[in-house]
Each structure stands twice: as structure tokens, then as C-alpha cells.
Write a structure and sequence with these properties.
single chain, 454 residues, mainly alpha, 0% strand
């Protein structure tokens, strides 16, 4: 009976998750294509991409977290069949996401001159600053796209964002080729060409999803005009209480990997380039697992809105089972192909050897990475964000990074030590979030039983 329930829930979850997984995979593959093409320019441009992206993606993921506040609330309102609340959440979320985009844009502009003070190789910093400024421009269209994406995903409509993302990412890869190497009459812009390709693709993504939502009959009942009239501070605060902690969850996690990249720069150019290769490969499985996380957030939110806690627990644990299976396959692939994957990026054998060792550690932390990202999604579906945020802070910044620094620079393990610290942080996070979901959902189930028996 339990097996039948698992497969039944898994089928529904996969139908919801696979478009998000493909969408996330599309974005990651652009990063893979970026790094493969930039790697052909040499270790220094690849290291510069690693440094700039480590800063940019930390900020980008904070914005992504803020935008995610809309999804569980819309999912819950849909479970309650409350169309009015759906429109209210969209209107408030649109303003919050716009303000967030402007704030993050200004933050990176102010921070970029400080890259030279991070004790990184000078030649890497010189290459990274203009590239960082170009991709920073893409924050505004990215957050506009996220606003509509999170709204329609809260309504269990995930295919549309996938199609838009895949098409625009395909264009991004083509533009990478044309602008990095100067093919077919285009200027050869090197690393900066990858930045311009990203900006153009994200502008088109924002335009496409806006036109789709505005012209689709499906979304007309929800009234989605953008405006600042009739905004309510209690509603805004409710969304910020979910979105801001979620953003900090991403900052604590992505920031840990960004800090690891800075530590790699202290070790040397080759270590930083190898880190970029291994992180880029690990991001493929992570971003696809985040599709299951998004499905967990929507499905748990739906069941919470329906007050069906028994099914909520079944859904949650079935998705944990799915991600364990999924990430185990990636772990096996990384181990088998560890000697070959770095060669896709660069032919510098010193960088390849370091990257091979890091890929082994990436294979080991696949299960922890998958469990923790699904745990965060399932808990967001329960509107539980404060404790998970504290967990990520402690796991990465109190345990993982200090341990990585100790192993790398005090005990002489260099780049391996940094990554063992990351592995430890991920593992602690995974265990604590899984326990948190079990405890919270069990408490809800017991409370429901008490209510129905009295």
C-alpha cells in the first residue's frame, strides 16, 4: 500500500516538477556552455568568471528567494479556492520584487570596486570587474521574469516558464559563441561576450513571460495588473516574512560556495579554475533537484490549504525518496566520469587534476545536497522559513566554512580541505531539515486529530 502511494504521489510530483527541472537545467547548461567556451580562452578568464559569478549568484539567489514568497501563498490560496487572495499576492509580490531588483542592482554596483581587496590574483580581478557589471544589468529583467514565473508555478503551471527558459537559453548559448569568439562578423569580446549574451537572453525571457500571462485566457480570472494602489502593509509583511528569510537561506548556502571560491583564489589561479569546473558540474544536479524542491513547495502548500495533513506527509516523504534516487544516479555518474568531465572545459592538465579530485567530493555530497534543497522547499510549503534559515546559517558559516579553512590552510589540505568543509555543511543541513519537516508535519497531524476528536 505504501509503495502504491509513493508511486502515485511521485507521478503527480514529477508531472509538476519536470518542467521546472528542465527550466533549471536549461539555465545551468548556459553556465556550462559559458564555462566551456570561456575555458578555451585560458585559466585566467575562467578564474575571473568564477570570481564574478560567485558574487553575482549570491545576490541573484537572494532575489530568487524573495520572489519565491509568492508561490506557497498562491498555492495555499488555490487549495482554499480563494481567487481574490491570489490576485492580492500577485500585486504585492510584483512591487516587492521590483524594489528588490533595484536594491540588488545598486548593491553590486557599490560592491564591484571592492573586488580588488579580496586578495585575489590581480589579473583575475581586472578581467572579472567589467564582466560582473554587464551581468549585473540582467538582474532587472531576471527579477521581472521571476515575478511571473513564481506566480504561475504557484498555480501549478510549470511548463510555460520551462519553454520560455529553454528557448532563450538556447539563444544565450548561440550568442555566447558569436560574442566570445567573434564569429560571423560579431566582435570578439572574450569573457565580456558571455555577459552580454546573458543580458540579452534575460531581457527576452522577461518580455516573453509577460506577454504570455497577459494574453492567456487561463490567467484572466486572477486580475494581474501591475500597480501600487491598494497595497497593504500586513500583506507585504506576510510575504516579506517568507521571502526575506528564503533569500537569506540562499545567501548562506550560495555565499558559502562563493566564499569557498575566494579561498580558492588564495590558493591560486589553478585551484580557482578547478573550483569553477566542479561547481559548474555540481550545479547541474542541484538545479534539477531544485525542480523537485519547487514541486514540494507547491504540493505541500496545496495540501496545507486543504488541511489534508496525512496526504501532506505522504507527498513530502515521497519527494525526499525521489530526490535520493535522482541524486544517487548523479553521484555514480560523477564518479565514473570524473577523469573526463574536466576536459570538456579546459586542456590545462594541472587544472584538470585538481578538478578531478573535487568532482569526487561533489559525488559524495550529492545525497546531502538533494535532501537539503527538497527540505527547504517542503518547509516553505508549510511557511516555515525562520528555523531553516538559522539551520543554513549555522551549518555553512559556523561549521562548514571554518572547518574548510582549518583543513585547507592550517592542516595543509588546500582545495580538498575547502570542499570537505562544504560537504560537512551540506550534510548537517540535510539531516536537520529532514528532521524539521518530520517534526512539524507530525505536529500538524496530531493537532488535527485532537481537533476532530473533540
Amino acid at each position: 500500500m505504501l509503495i502504491n502511494q509513493y508511486f502515485r504521489h511521485s507521478k503527480v510530483t514529477f508531472k509538476l516538477a519536470y518542467p521546472v527541472m528542465l527550466s533549471q537545467l536549461g539555465q545551468v547548461m548556459v553556465g556550462v556552455a559559458d564555462n566551456i567556451m570561456v575555458g578555451r580562452l585560458g585559466a585566467e578568464p575562467l578564474a575571473a568568471a568564477s570570481l564574478a559569478n560567485s558574487i553575482f549568484f549570491m545576490v541573484l539567489m537572494f532575489g530568487t528567494g524573495v520572489s519565491m514568497a509568492m508561490t506557497p501563498l498562491v498555492a495555499m490560496a488555490q487549495g482554499e479556492n480563494n481567487l481574490g487572495n491570489i490576485a492580492v499576492y500577485f500585486r504585492h509580490g510584483s512591487v516587492i520584487n521590483l524594489v528588490c531588483a533595484i536594491f540588488l542592482f545598486l548593491f553590486i554596483l557599490a560592491f564591484s570596486p571592492l573586488l580588488g581587496h579580496l586578495n585575489q590574483p590581480e589579473e583575475v580581478v581586472i578581467l572579472s570587474i567589467p564582466y560582473l557589471l554587464i551581468i549585473t544589468l540582467s538582474l532587472l529583467p531576471f527579477m521581472f521574469f521571476q515575478n511571473y514565473k513564481q506566480f504561475i508555478e504557484g498555480l501549478s503551471q510549470t511548463k510555460q516558464a520551462m519553454i520560455i527558459t529553454v528557448l532563450c537559453n538556447g539563444l544565450n548559448i548561440l550568442l555566447n559563441y558569436l560574442l566570445i569568439f567573434g564569429k560571423y562578423g560579431f566582435p570578439a569580446l572574450g569573457l565580456n561576450g558571455a555577459g552580454w549574451a546573458t543580458l540579452i537572453a534575460r531581457v527576452l525571457m522577461a518580455l516573453a513571460i509577460y506577454l504570455y500571462v497577459k494574453r492567456s485566457i487561463r490567467f484572466r480570472p486572477f486580475k494581474t495588473p501591475f500597480g501600487i494602489k491598494n497595497l497593504s502593509w500586513p500583506i507585504s509583511r506576510k510575504m516579506l516574512k517568507i521571502g526575506v528569510p528564503t533569500g537569506f537561506q540562499y545567501i548562506f548556502e550560495v555565499g558559502a560556495f562563493s566564499t569557498a571560491a575566494i579561498m580558492m583564489g588564495w590558493i591560486g589561479v589553478n585551484a580557482l579554475a578547478a573550483h569553477q569546473i566542479a561547481i559548474n558540474l555540481a550545479s547541474i544536479s542541484y538545479m534539477m533537484a531544485s525542480g523537485l524542491s519547487a514541486a514540494a513547495m507547491v504540493r505541500v502548500g496545496n495540501q496545507l490549504g486543504r488541511k489534508d495533513i496525512k496526504t501532506l506527509r505522504e507527498v513530502g516523504f515521497s519527494i525526499f525518496g525521489m530526490v535520493i534516487t535522482f541524486m544517487s544516479l548523479f553521484a555514480l555518474a560523477f564518479l565514473v566520469l570524473r577523469n573526463h568531465l574536466p576536459l570538456l572545459y579546459i586542456d590545462d592538465m594541472e587544472v584538470v587534476q585538481v578538478a578531478t579530485n573535487l568532482i569526487i567530493i561533489a559525488a559524495i555530497f550529492q545525497l546531502s545536497d538533494g535532501i537539503q534543497v527538497v527540505g527547504l522547499g517542503a518547509l516553505r510549503g508549510l511557511s516555515d522559513v525562520k528555523v531553516p534559515t538559522f539551520v543554513t546559517l549555522v551549518a555553512y558559516w559556523v561549521i562548514g566554512l571554518p572547518l574548510g579553512y582549518l583543513l585547507a590552510f592550517t592542516l595543509g589540505m588546500a582545495e580538498i580541505g575547502v570542499w570537505v568543509g562544504l560537504l560537512t555543511g551540506l550534510s548537517v543541513t540535510a539531516v536537520l531539515l529532514l528532521l524539521r519537516f518530520h517534526q512539524l508535519s507530525l505536529r500538524l497531524l496530531k493537532n488535527k486529530h485532537k481537533t476532530t476528536t473533540h
